[in-house]
Amino acid sequence: MLWYYELQDLENVEKVYNESITTAENPDELTATLAEIYLYSNKLYNSAKLTASLPSGKAQTDLKEKINKEIIYAESDVQQKIIEDFPELIDEEISEKLQRKLRVDENDFIESNSNMVADRLRATSLGNKIAYGIRDKNLNTHTFGLTQYKAFSLQLNENFPDNTDQNLYGIEYSFKRKERNQKLNYSASTRIEFNEASKAFYHAQANISFAKDSLFSSAQLLFRPAITGPAYSLGIYQTQLTIYEELQLNKHWRGILSLESNYYSDDVLDGLLLTNLGYKIKIREKSSLLPYTEISGMLGNTNRENGYPYWTINERLYGGLGIEYAYIDPKSELKFSLGAATFRYVFR
Q1: Distance CA 155, CA 308 (A)
Q2: pLDDT at residue 240 in the model
Q3: What is the pLDDT of residue 266?
Q4: Which residues contact 82 (CB under 8 A, 6 or more apart)?
Q5: What is the arithmetic mean of pLDDT over 305-309?
Q6: Contact at 8 Å (CB) between 212 and 230?
Q7: Among 215, 209, 206, 161, which residue's Cα sits nearest to residue 187?
Q8: Do residues 60 and 89 touch, judged by C-beta distance below 8 A?
């Protein structure tokens, strides 16, 4: 069995098990071996089913401990089925936590959020949204929202007639595919909003992501008005593509590579490439420090360092050092992080 497992030939693993189980001298040991193979082959339900059939003892206890660790990362339908069919395998605390999470992930909901973009300490935009979310039979999420958005004028030494605040109200729809482990996940949203003069503005966004083992990859494409007040006044739209790669090299080292490109409807282009390398230091069970170094370079065809009608620059290269403190409590799901960094321009 183990030889076929090394070859990733699960079909023959099961065939050997079925042929040997009735004549094996120690059938429980054979069953425990297959349960462990299932566990590491991303077949958690099959592993739980075999584990539940074992008599009480060290083999079952060891497998239960491993299943309790793995079930936290399983897909929601697998979690629910194991909790329903084999409740005796799952620790009460973990079972209660997962069931609370399942209620949140599988039922309709109301949400509200706010976000602000600032240039240094000056606000560039402020947005608010209230929405109602519906989960369909496949647990995909459909969200319908009302939005309020303010794009602020810029504080400049020169006067521009289009440098005004924009107050906007709109409606939004978003779709999110139920997340799946080691498979492609995707989401999309669209919004239409109107300013006080009843002029319409349009937004669209699409996201895809994929995670497997220590690698996380994502890509985002968005189309929207550039976020400042004068950009709205002038009707300038931004198309942005962002590609993000994060690799956990081992339990300490983490690397990030990010590429962002922008095209603005007044024929302005720019691109940003960023690399980040960090080293995680565990200081307590729930706390860690992450010192990191970062280098970023930007190229474009236009220089607008004053930020009007939006910020872009033709060339820039900088690097620096930073550190981030993180506190995560899995039981209460409390997460807290605090970071600081210093950067120096090589040229701009």
Answers
A1: 9
A2: 98
A3: 95
A4: 44, 45, 48, 67, 71, 74, 89, 90
A5: 89
A6: no
A7: 206
A8: no
Secondary structure of residue 249 in the 3-state scheme: coil
| pLDDT digit string, tens, across residues 311-344 | 999 999 999 999 999 998 766 667 888 999 888 8
Place of tokens 């009707």: 235
- The better pLDDT of the pair 177, 7 is held by 177
Both tokens of residue 104? 């949140």
> What tokens appear for 157 in the block?
């030494």
Residues 198, 21: Cα–Cα separation, whole Å: 74
Give me 183's structure tokens.
Answer: 């498979």
CB-neighbour burial class of residue 227 (10 A; exposed 0-12, middle 13-18, buried 19+) = middle
Question: Percent helix, strand and coil across the chain, each rounded to 5?
Answer: 25, 45, 25
DSSP string, 211-248: EETTEEEEEEEEEEE-SSHHHHHHT-EEEEEEEEEEEE
Digit-coded pLDDT (tens) for 118-147:
776 778 889 999 999 999 988 899 999 999
Q: Please tell me the distance from the alpha carbon of residue 170 to that of residue 198, in angstroms, as a whole number.
A: 11
- Tokens 């924009």 correspond to 166
Going from the C-alpha of 326 to that of each of 164, 245, 256, 322, 343, the distances in angstroms are 40, 21, 18, 13, 21
Count of all residues that appear for the chain in the document: 348
Token digits of residue 241: 């593509």
Tell me the CA distances in angstroms from 224 to 90, 157, 189, 332, one per residue in order. Answer: 47, 27, 11, 37
pLDDT for res 41: 86
DSSP H helices in 160-307: 229-234
